Every structure is written in structure tokens, then in C-alpha cells.
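Thread title: Can someone regenerate the structure for this chain?

I was given the following input by a collaborator and told the matching C-alpha cells would be attached. They weren't. Posting the sequence so someone can regenerate them.
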Amino acid sequence: MEVDYFTNLPSEITTEILSRLSIRSLAISKSVCKSWRDLFDVVKSKIKTPPALVLFYRGQDSTRCKIIEIEDEDEDEADLESHDLYYHPLTDLVIPHRSTGLIQCVTANALLLFYSPLLRGIYICNLINREYTELSYPDDYTPYQSLQFGFGVSKISRKYKVIWINSDFHCVYTLGRGTWRRVEADPASVYSLLGRAISCNHNLHWTAYDSRNNIWTFCSFDVETECFDIFSYPPTGDRSGSLSVLRDCLCYSYYARNNEIVIWMMKEYQVDESWTVEYKMSTAGLDISNFNTRYMHVAAIKLFKDGDVLMMLDHSILVYYSNKTRTLRRVNMLKDADAKKGYAQIFNPSLLSLKSLGLKNVILF
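Best answer:
Regenerated them for you:
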């Protein structure tokens, strides 16, 4: 009788082996047989996988997304001239839902929150396990309100929390508890929060605008303490840029009128004086003739070990900046994506089951 030595290995050795597999290999291995599936269920919380890129396609009634693995070699190990060859498309997905209209998405580690800003439908999803569930709305929700959401993980308790924001009240939903709780909005109550929530240092971040006093700033929400705070823009007159996270630092990126893409980095978290210009990238040689550069959206996505930067311009094309040659080039890994509007995020793939968080009515798709 053949002995399955792999399943009899100590759990720490099994975890170390599985952590060296790619996302694709993990998904395939889990489907080999029942014993391997059970093995993954035992050690999956300890498996560490490298971050991946998820591209969401923007459109009516659309929850289509593409997951892509990204290799990030050390500079002395890399022998490729282009990061194009480091990208490995994993899968395309269409997440089912009953909402209509534009769908927004934000990530927290392995999990995805997607929702319609105006109509009913709040969903939590694990793209790797292909699980999702629908959350309830607060009892005093008024239909067709314009909404903002954030999704993050608390620093100490490690609880996943959804923050709901509108003009009347703010509240928090801790996954597994099943109820919404109101939270105090000060000092953010006078601001309108704009854009998708960006997670950094276990806090969520938005651009904030006080229309009465014409003040632009940034707002943060501490997922652990459930408190809001305000901090300043970098010392630039530009207010058209966007927040992102590169190597655990908050960044502010925008297209300048001198044909440059500028990225500011906050070297010390929420220390206003630590804002530093990290990159100035000339767009010479990059075909952006079809874009309205006055309002071109710049989203910095990933900073590679060799200093290259992956970005999305105008919600439609991916480009990367070569730190070695100081040039920008289009990334052609998405093929059909260039003709579609969307946005991209880095997330941490995991086999974490929604049921393990106490969520009910979990559906496979």
C-alpha cells in the first residue's frame, strides 16, 4: 500500500513547503484529492503567499476582475529588461451579485468588499476560494443615499471591519458579529470623503474636502480604535492626485503640467513634515495623446525591489517606470484591458474561508 508521506509531515514543515508555491499551484494542489484538501484546511491560516495584482473592470453591472501573479526579483538576481515578463495571469472571474449600477471594490488582505454606491448590495468575497456573502444594511439606511465604504483589519484583534460613511451617520460592521454600530465622526464630520479607501498601517485613508471653507486634506480611520483623524497634503498645489501605498508608505501621485508624473511619499506615518518627492517621471516617449492630461488620474500600484514602479493611468492603461533607464513604458500583459476602464489593487491571496470568520450564507461561485 502506497504511503502518503506528505500528509504525515510536521505541520511547520508542511507550511514551509506550501508557502513556496505560487497562487496557481496552491489552487491546483488543493483540488488533487480529499486528503490534500483537508491538509490545506489545517494549515491554510499559516501559509504566506506573495501579493498579487487584481484588476477590476469598470462598467455597468460589472464585477469582472483579473488576478495576476507578480514576481519581484532582487536587482542582482533579475536578468530581464522588462517587468512585462514577470506577470503571470492567473484567472478571470465574474462575481455574481444582485446589484445594478456601477460597482466599487476595496480590499483588506485576502478579502474583497464590493458594493454599489447608490443601490443595495454589500458583499464580502475571497477571490481565491471563490466564496462570497452579502451583508445586511443598517436599520436606518435611506435608499439611494450616496455612500462611502472602507474595509480593513484591526492591528491588535485582527478583526475585519467595514466602515460605512454617509452625510447623516458613520457606523462599523465587524465580520462575524452581524450588526452595525455607530461611531463618532469627529474630527472628520465637516468633510466629504472622496475616492476609494486606501489601507496603510492598519488605518483607512480618503481624500477629504470641506466645501464651506474650501479646505483639502486627508482623513484616516483607525480600524482598531475606530477613531478618525486628519493630516495634511504634501507641500504641492496639486489637488488632482490620488492616494496609494508603496512599501508600507502612503503616497500621493499626480500628473504635473510639465509632462511629469510625480510621486510623493510620506516616510514617517502621519508626520506631515516627512512628505518627500520620491519620483519625478518624464512622460516623453509615452503615447498619451488620447488622454486629457489636465485631469489624468495616476494610481501608483507597486514599487519593485529594483526601484521600478507599476502604475495605472487614466483608469485604462498600465505602465511601469524603469528606475535604471528613467523611462516609462506600457505594460502589455492585460491585452484587452487597455480598451476598458478599471482600476487595479495589490492584495494578499489566501485560502481563508469566510465561514471561519463567522459569516453565514456563504455562497460558492
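The first strand starts at residue 52 and ends at 57.
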